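QA checklist item 7 of 12: single-chain prediction sanity check.
[x] sequence parsed
[x] length recorded as 357
[x] structure emitted
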Amino acid sequence: MIPELTVDIDSVAANWSLLAAAHGAPTSAVVKADAYGLGASLVAPRLLAAGVRHFFVAQLAEAVALRPLLPGVMIGVLNGFSAADAGAYTVHDLLPVLGSLPEIEAYRTFAARIGQTLPALLHVDTGMSRLGLSAAELERVADDPGLLAGIAWRYAMTHLVSAEQPDDPVNAAQQVRFAAACARLPPMARSMANSSGIFLGPGFRSDLARPGAALYGINPTPGRPNPMRPTMRLTAPVLQIRTIAAGEAVGYNASWTAARPTRVATVALGYADGYHRAASGRAAAGFDGARVPLIGRISMDLLTFDATDHPRLQPGSRLEIIGPAVPPDEVAGWAGTNGYEVLTSLGHRARRRVGAL
């Protein structure tokens, strides 16, 4: 009697094909954070079979774990180069994304020590102010291109700040800044658009797009119909149903009180499974084509729902907590977050299986 996460890997692959067609140029797949919570070991091989030849993760350990499943293709490590683990990049044929002059120097020093010219990606900051060459570092590179020597640069990349808001002027500003930066760099291929950036128009097309969340069904065009297919369904079983009288409370701190005799369904899932406590009092689950309202506080291991109007809901029934009937973007709205966090928060207590939705 545990939660179950069904992952439709064919829909993930279909979403990648849609994104690649929309981009109209080579398109990678970002499979960081365990493929946004769905399970990278399930998702990545299916994307490889669909034709993906460029993958990105955040951390080196993610890349090392995926390499046996992704032979012969590029795996980029977005968080860059770790000198303490330098050998892992060559042993597993991994490409760090380098985003500062000290990091570039450390990687070049390692490459010289082993007598190789190693490949990498170059990150240029155009407004995110996290990782990537700063404006001052870019000036130094423009004055002394030798600072980039000794590395086989595959792509120059940047990361869009506000692509999900197409009217935000920062998008056009970043496009201009990135073009200007690349004009001051040695010639190399470029990578710019993320999931939402693909839908900003041809001006954001580059040599390699890097979609992530949209692969997994998150809407890359908020405020408009979601062009992506749903890719997952999280269900949890009803452990018990009891009837309480009007005036009785449910859950911690008695935050919900019955206004009528109420059938309370207690379900085996909670915030330890990644279902955000902040959604208390607002969320609902899907059952039999209808919505079942969540009542009481979300607790660590249990949820409670008002099953009064759902007589077919019985112990052993499974509620759809997140899925086609209850999209992650909607769950995010209840919790005051975004769909990215909803998916990447999914814990590992749920049994994962591959299947159609």
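[x] summary fact logged: The mean pLDDT is 97.
[ ] second reviewer sign-off
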